[in-house]
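Appendix B, example 12.
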Amino acid sequence: MVFIYRIREMFEGWFTGLTIAGIMGFFALLAIALAVAVPLVIGIFVWRDAERRGLNRAWALAAALIPNFLGLIAYLLVASQHKPKIHCPGCNTAVESGVNNCPSCGHRFALANCPKCNRAVSPGWKVCPECGQQLSE
């Protein structure tokens, strides 16, 4: 019983330092940190994704500043309509993924077509992703 009383005495001084104002101050700082960190993370995500898709990166600012995630939702709806872009190794032009030739310089992205479904396949692929046909090397 004496042991419990001494433990209580030890922690009693610590608990008196925690006041309501101290606890509220902690939560206020936490709220401010989240109010800055969440839009910053959303803005960075949208900036990088818009760059990858070839979209205007002003979406990042809109997504970060419009409250209640409405900007992020609007961006995701618009971005879902655009395929990611790839850069042509011949002329470094941004081209939609899935095309066979670069429209600027004519560089051919795929070296062959699948013998079964005629889908463009890249070198080194063992199986056609469309029909599952084994590809010869």
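The chain has a mean pLDDT of 79. The chain is about 50% helix and 5% strand.
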